[in-house]
Amino acid sequence: MDIVTITEAAALQIKDMMKENEEEGAFLRVAIQGGGCSGLSYGMGFAHEVEDGDTEFEQYGIKILVDKDSAPALKGTKIDYKQSLMGGGFTIDNPNAIASCGCGSSFRTATNEGTPENC
């Protein structure tokens, strides 16, 4: 099983963003970093190299990288893209998050509290 699952809607949006930013052929790096109200926050960006310890897999023709430190906290995470009248945005459903903030971009797990900030 892949660490992270992206939906078809998310994949289409990511491909559009790759095209707009002339990043076709790049990897999509999904990671967590310290910060946010609950201690950890998500990061997604384009990468051009596989680093030591990365797990690489492919979904909907998008090559995805997850580093070894982020992998345990991201296992089973689903990334979707929702369109609404207020615009669109990525949604992240992480079964490992035991606490998350109201904005949904920050969380912590049972084994990783991160570095909470005051909001």
From TrEMBL:
Stored InterPro entries: ATAP (IPR016092), ATAP_core_dom (IPR000361), FeS_cluster_insertion_CS (IPR017870), HesB-like_dom_sf (IPR035903)
Pfam families in UniProt: Fe-S_biosyn
PANTHER family per record: IRON-SULFUR CLUSTER ASSEMBLY 2 HOMOLOG, MITOCHONDRIAL
Highest taxon in the source lineage: Bacteria
Name of the protein in its database record: Iron-sulfur cluster assembly protein
Gene3D superfamilies per UniProt: HesB-like domain (2.60.300.12)
All residue ranges annotated as the Core domain in the record: 4-104
